[in-house]
Amino acid sequence: MTSRLALRFGVLPLGATLLAATLAAVPTATVASPAASSARSGVAVTNGCLSSVPETKGGAPVKICYSIFKPASATSAKRVPMVIHSHGWGGSRTTDPADFASLTRAGYGVLSFDQRGFGASGGKAHVENPDFEGQDVRALVRLVSRLRWVQQDAPGDPRLGAIGGSYGGGYQFLGAFESLRLKGKPVFDALAPEITWHDVSQSLAPEGVVRTAWALALSAAALPTQALPERVYKALVEGAATGTWPDGSIPGTEDLVTFFAKNGPKHHVDAGRRLDIPVLLGQGTTDSLFPLQQGLANWQRAITPRARKQSIFVGYNGGHVLPAVLPQGVDVTSDPCSRRLGGGDFRALTVKFFDKVLQRKPSSLGGFGKIHLATPDNTCTTVSSVAPTTTYDVGTVATTEGPAGAPIPYAVAEGPIRIAGSSYLTGKVTALGVNNRAFYGLAVGTSPLDAHLVQNNVLPLNERLPVSGLARRVTLPSVAIDVPAGQTLYLLVSPVSDTFVTMGSRTPGAVVIDDTVVHLPVVGR
C-alpha cells in the first residue's frame, strides 16, 4: 500500500486514518526517561508510557507510549502551547526532534504518541473508538496538563493544538468530540487534520460496495503487529471477497457496521454535536480512500458556522493514492493552495495557522472561512460553497454489458468551464439483475478517446434488486477542474473500477439511466 502524501511532521499515512476512543483511567507514567537533548536545537526529549484502559473488563492496563519535545524557550515562567501528533495507520510515533523543528522553533511543545496497537503501545486498534482510543487521548491530555512548562487556560485545560494525517487525523476529531460530549467543550483549542474521514463505512464501502484495494491494504498494514481484533481482519477479507460490506445479516459473518458505528465525526454529528474551534482541514483531491467529499463533510457538518469563519479548508493533489488505470486518471502531486495561502507547504501553513489561533500573534494569514481546492493543473480555486449551481441534460447513459466492459464518456459541457465542489446526477435507473453496479465520475479530454478522470475517483451505484425507470440521485466525486477551450467535460460511466476491483455487477446486465441530468458546482455563474 502506498501513499503520495508528503511526510509532514513525521506523519506516516499508510492507510485509513482511524482514531477514536476516550480514556477513563487516570494515567500514570510507567516508563518516563529523559533522552539526550538535541545539541543543535536545544530541544529536550522525554520518552515514556502511561497506563490506559484494558482491552477487556478486568484485564491488564494497556500502555500508551509517547515522546515529548520541550523547546529551549519553554520554562515554568514562560509557558508554551502544546501540539499533539500521531501517526498514520500501520505507523508509529516520531522520535526525532528534527521532524518537529518548525514547531519547536516557533515556540510549541510537541507530544507524539503511538496509537493503541501500533509502535511501542499495547492493545488492539479499535479504529478510534471512544471506549478505547478516546480514553487514550484523554489520558495524554491529562499528562500534558501536568507539565509545568505548558501553557494552561484553566486547571486541566492546556493550550492545545493537534496535527497528523489519515489515522493521525482521526484521533484529533475523537479527542475533541469526546471532550465536548463529556465536559461540554473540546479540550483542543485548534486542530489540523489531514486526509481523514467523516464516515468510516462510507469511506471503505460507499453505497455498500467495498473499496477492495483499500480493505485488503489496511488489513495487510495491520498484520505485522496483529493490530486489529481478529474479527475485523475476518470481516475485511469477507467484504473484499463478497463485494458487500459485512453487516452481520448473513449467519456466520461479521458486523462491521456495528464495529464502526461510533468511529468518526459522523457519530457525533448525528448526536447533535459540533466543534466550535478553529480547524485547518487538509484533504487529498486525488485520495481514493478518504476522498475529497469526506473532508468537505467534516467542514460542512463537524464544525459550527462560527468555527468555519475561523477555519481554512485546503484540498491538495495527493493523499491515499493508488494508480488510476481503469478508468484512467491523472498522476499529479501538488499543493498550490498552501503555497498561495502560506508561502510554502501544508506544514508551513499549519505553523502560521497555529501562530494566529493558538498564540494569537499578529498575522497577515488569510483564506479563513473559505474552501481552497487544487486542480490537476496545479492552480488553486477558492470558493465559499461547494454546492451545485448549474444543471446539464445528458440524456441516456449506460454501462456496457457484462462485468468487463470499457468506460464510456458522455459529453456534459464544452470548455472553458470551471467547477469546484460536489456534483451529482439524477435520472431514471433501469437495472434488471440482482446487485447491478456501475461506477460514475467526471472526466475531461479533447475527445472521448482521451478523456480521463479529473482527480481519479469514481463512486458506485448499487441496485440490489431489479428496478425499471426508478428515480435515483447518484453522488459524483467532488473535484476541482478548469476545463479549457477546446476540451470537454464528460460524465464517465464504467462497469468496473480498479479501486473497487471485482466489485462490478454480481449478475450480467447493463445499468441504464434515462433523462440524466448532471448537477455541477460551476464557478463564476
Automatic annotation (TrEMBL):
<keyword id="KW-0378">Hydrolase</keyword>
<dbReference type="InterPro" id="IPR000383">
    <property type="entry name" value="Xaa-Pro-like_dom"/>
</dbReference>
<dbReference type="InterPro" id="IPR029058">
    <property type="entry name" value="AB_hydrolase_fold"/>
</dbReference>
<dbReference type="GO" id="GO:0052689">
    <property type="term" value="F:carboxylic ester hydrolase activity"/>
</dbReference>
<comment type="similarity">
    <text>Belongs to the AB hydrolase superfamily.</text>
</comment>
<feature type="signal peptide">
    <location>
        <begin position="1"/>
        <end position="20"/>
    </location>
</feature>
<protein>
    <submittedName>
        <fullName>Lysophospholipase, alpha-beta hydrolase superfamily</fullName>
    </submittedName>
</protein>
<keyword id="KW-0732">Signal</keyword>
<dbReference type="Pfam" id="PF02129">
    <property type="entry name" value="Peptidase_S15"/>
</dbReference>
<dbReference type="InterPro" id="IPR050261">
    <property type="entry name" value="FrsA_esterase"/>
</dbReference>
<feature type="domain" description="Xaa-Pro dipeptidyl-peptidase-like">
    <location>
        <begin position="62"/>
        <end position="312"/>
    </location>
</feature>
